[in-house]
Amino acid sequence: xxxxxxxxxxxxxxxxxxxxxxxxxxxxxxxxxxxxxxxxxxxxxxxxxxxxxxxxxxxxxxxxxxxxxxxxxxxxxxxxxxxxxxxxxxxxxxxxxxxxxxxxxxxxxxxxxxxxxxxxxxxxxxxxxxxxxxxxxxxxxxxxxxxxxxxxxxxxxxxxxxxxxxxxxxxxxxxxxxxxxxxxxxxxxxxx
Length: 192
Fold this sequence. Notes:
This protein has helices at about 1-40, 125-130, 130-145, 155-175, and strands at about 90-95, 100, 110-120, 185-190.
């Protein structure tokens, strides 16, 4: 009889170990699925968020812009694009007022007239227009941090244009969640 009890005890131990393994696997799968859902919901995995309602899309030449600027090209007639070059159209925003600032470590002044360009839809230029005050402030900070000597070379002017582009995009990203300005162009540049 003691042998029969010992056999039953061994069977119970074997069955209990298998059940623990099944429970362990189910718990591990549950934790893994919960963690994956949490990471997806937090945006750590899955769609990178580069498209959607708040991320302007590139506009091909000849396509209509889903978000045209008020008073834009419609009054000027149809735009005819060349067949070569970039496949996307470039739209420009011209700042109405010039920017004047002291230069870094110098008694010199700089005065610039600027335009910004994008190949994305009109929301980018609408945002530039809407946030002109903050953009103007960011541009003036960059101008005042520019050494006078940098403005006498082509490379220095190109570096300034790149910094101004970054400053505009930083304001747009902070306020709208997306930059989109590809370049800043000098309409006029005067150093005194």
